[in-house]
Amino acid sequence: MMIPERPSLERRVLAALDGSPGGGTRIPVVLGGCGSGRTSLLLRLRDLIGRSSAQYVDVERIATTPERFLKSMRDASPFPPVPYGHVDAVETGARGAFDAALAFLDTARGSADAPATFLLDEFLELRTFESFPGLRSVLRDLLSALSSSGNRFVLTTRYAARAHRLLRDAPSQFEIIPVAPLTPAEVRATLPAVRASRTPSGSIVDEDDRARDELARLVHAISDGRPSYARMLAEASTSLSSRDAVDPVSALTALLSPSGTIATACRFSYELRLHRARGYGALKAILDVLAEEEPLTLTEIALRLRRTPGSTKDYLSWLEDVDLIVAKQKRYSFADPMMRLWVRMHAHNSPPTDEDITREVHAYVLTRLPQGEPALALAGAEAGAGEREKPWGIIEID
After folding, report:
1. Which of 5, 25, 131, 162 could covalently link to 19 via disulfide, CB atoms 3.0 to 4.6 Å apart?
2. Domains of the chain by start residue, with CATH
3. pTM assigned to the model
């Protein structure tokens, strides 16, 4: 299922493409982690702009060789062919094929000779071409070509740190747009009715909007506002309902089992980012250390890792480069709290037991509750006077 629509984000990107009076059009660079909805955004923009005027390009899938990249992009194009389209990329080699791809992006036109719009998903994957002869500055060549083109472009990537570094000295047309976490209201908009009944006239109405609001706040807190986690939690909470109520804590427990969808998503992001970084084994060790305790200083991590501060600093910088960790006031922690929970449970010699998952999930949920919420205790604790049991397996203490 697609990530929910983000109208405010769409409007901001379209405003950048249209430009401000006297300011000219800009090139939005949308930054968001795995499951943040970057691809859904581009596909939605393609429909809003018009499929005859915009081309979606999944760079991550087709950036194999420059020649095949050019052919894939040309073959899927909705734009009329132009003279350079007949160049034999095999004969021109890697450099010639990449130059032809840049020319295609620059000179393709929509209907009535209108500017074409290209939606380049995970554009940093073009960096793989830098291993070919004559291609040592692919990404900078790309930025230069796009900034001088009369066409319109939207770029996305999951690697925020690398994008910021690349764009530090880029032309002023490029505008970084981070994908913000979902708000509780946006989470609520994705929820089905918590409890519903049929009116005398036969229509369906919510019996308890307040329960829906509370569920949205809890799903938002547990998911850290991350769209894919929120969507999976919302769907599983309703499908695993009991007593005509929903249960996001039990849903998260199921989703983080070895075959659960959140566990699968975390594994994908974990492995993908580690394989894009250097020092694979040592980086996993640091993530294990931070899963046990965070935040930690460089010295504390080095002691636990039994490595020198110098080598540990390198490892930490490589983890920051792929956005697996963040540093605040010289203390390091996971960028994604759900990823940390997954590492705590799954980075061991044996798969976690049901008891392990239940214990870790409940501990995680209690740390994610919004500030100012009433004190909460785990389900199964003996209720005392004045306690009200919530449908999602947590007891609220007055």
Report:
1. 25
2. 7-178 (3.40.50.300), 184-258+351-396 (no CATH), 263-346 (1.10.10.10)
3. 0.83
